[in-house]
Amino acid sequence: MGPMVTAPLLAAASSDAERHGVFTLEGFPYWIVYVAAFGIVMVRAQATYWLGRGVARGMGGTRVAHVLASPRATQVIDRIHRWGPPAVTFSFFTVGVQTVVNLAAGYLRMPFGRYLVALTFGCLVWAAIWTTVGTAVVWGAVLLFLHHPAVLAALVVLALGLTAWLLHRRRTRTDAAQPTPEEV
């Protein structure tokens, strides 16, 4: 990007950040953004829970039923049996696990009252995390892109490489821990 393009973008980003603050969205105050995020995650998580209930009720041949039969989903289901509602709440501290946990909670027919209490606490936490830290990370990435796009690209490549390495390492350890057919 040349100086003719970046200068107006930098000025716009700086004036927006000064005018609206980090924890706002297009001038809306923080509490409105928080309530909207809470509502979105509450609807999404409950839809996933009820989808799990539907699968348990007789949609056994669906793609969702196959996902729930996967090894990762089976581990999550075992945790829900063991930990119940706290597993639902704490799933909102993670990325990517909450959908499987909510689906499994519905599939296992966790009583809705207990689920709703756990879900509410989880959604409150999720909305707080994403409307503070999440918003700050997005604004930081935008500003880093505007000032130093190569640095942002390098950080993304580094994060992807680290994730791939960790997944490979985990898969290698899992494969090494399983007995060979001769050992069985």
TrEMBL record:
Keyword Membrane: yes
Keywords: Cell membrane, Membrane, Transmembrane, Transmembrane helix
Pfam families for the chain: VTT_dom
Compartment(s): Cell membrane
Domain VTT: 28-135
Membrane-related topology note: Multi-pass membrane protein
Entry-linked InterPro entries: DedA_domain, VTT_dom
Domain of life: Bacteria
Transmembrane segments: 27-51, 115-139, 145-167
Family from the record: Belongs to the DedA family.
Protein name per its UniProtKB record: VTT domain-containing protein
